[in-house]
Write a structure and sequence with these properties.
Elements: H1 17-29, H2 56-65, E1 71-74, H3 81-88, E2 92-97, H4 100-109, H5 115-135, H6 137-147, H7 150-159, H8 162-175, H9 181-193, E3 218-220, E4 226-228, H10 238-241, E5 244-246, H11 250-263, E6 276-279, E7 292-297, H12 308-316, H13 323-329, H14 349-361, H15 363-386, E8 387-397, E9 401-402, E10 405-406, H16 409-420, E11 423-431, H17 450-453, E12 457-464
Parallel strand pairs: 1-2, 1-7, 2-6, 3-5, 7-8
Antiparallel strand pairs: 3-4, 8-12, 9-10, 11-12
Length: about 475
Amino acid sequence: MVQLSLPLNLTDQTEPDELRRRRLASLLSEDLDFHSQDSQYASHNFHSFPAKFPPQLPRKFIAALTEPNDVILDPMVGSGTTLLETYLLDRRGIGFDIDPLALLISKVKVTPLDVLEVIQTGHSLLQRATDALEARCDVLEQALEKRFDAKTRQFIDHWFTRTTQLELSALIMEIEQIRDPGLRAFFELAFSAIIITKSGGVSLALDLGHTRPHRAKVVMSKSGNIVFGQDQPDRTSPRMKVHTKTLRPALGEFEKRIQQNVRGLLEPGSGKIQPTIAHGNTQFLPLADASVDLIVTSPPYASNAIDYMRAHKFSLAWLGYAIEDLSQKRNDYIGGEAVTEVAFEPLSTFTANVVEDVVKRDEKKGRILHRYYSEMTRALREMFRVLKPGRAAIVVVGSSVMRGRDTETHRCLADIGRSLGFDVPKIGVRNLDRDRRMLPAGSELNLSSQIQQRMHAEYVIGFYKPQVGESP
């Protein structure tokens, strides 16, 4: 149980519910797109992450609905955007997630480090890795053979050339020698960031933003030599161009990533409040009742429409996780497709009708959707429990299409929230800037593509918990 011995924010405790609901509705009626604004400040750009919302979104609600020292919760912390904004605005942040890469990203982004020490450590690390590649390649070969189990080795061999494997092995072996946990995590994240990018990074993947990564047909070195695949007579055709990639040296990419991330480092001595970030399931939060002033979070899409682990395992396998274990972990994610040993919740009327409509089209898909709304029922129940009366939860969601049926996720979650005691004064809409957002779909809207139909807008639901003695 995370203990919070904090005083209540008493600045507006006498304000009636109706005024608070109106303020929340007004905020949700404003522009939520933020397309023209810079989202790359501080450490927000340390690592790519599928479908993360712009930092201006949580900042807007944190600034308007809370005071310094108030407690802000993100129970599905993802890339840590909410917690970084919480830190920058002098609030007390708490975040939970079950994804190991999400936890690493979030912790590194809010950990102040000495810039000079990072630069010196990075320089030394790169020099030793370069020396190992030049003079101790046999040691790296032996380390590679021992590093992975059989299934993980098969995965690594499929997605990384042998040359890249040696480069990555040289880097990760040096990173693992760093004793300071915060410093080591910084370099682990930089290491991960050169693998997981929208362009596929130093792997053979074309695009790790896709639900199912695709391996390039032709991979070339920077000098133009083919390092994977066979030369194609039609390599210059538009179709072959999208199946061809240039593989960059891992050490060079790592150096560039360090230089980029150093510019966004939070430096020690600011006096700001360090967030609490831990492994945890949003359906069972280790928090006391009525202990949180604001929740800002973004749940996964239903039915693994964005399958985070498919991309995350590309670097997690190098960070010591077995592929088999990571595949099993996918089953624990909200929105997963496994429907055995799942606790199904009774659904509110509107949501039950949506699920039933999908069941009629495809029984298995309907059960998957029922699982998603059951898990979100438990998540929203926990949010209601830990939120203080008179406070709000901002939930950013995207809808899905199952067998041609829109799951109406925003309306269903609003319906579930009301059944649990929340009021929903307003559901805002934000249009996605596809050029700046890592998503598994193209930039042009194709109405025949189900995945594109559901990923050009998302909804910002404002849940309000009435004060004691008042009702929606």
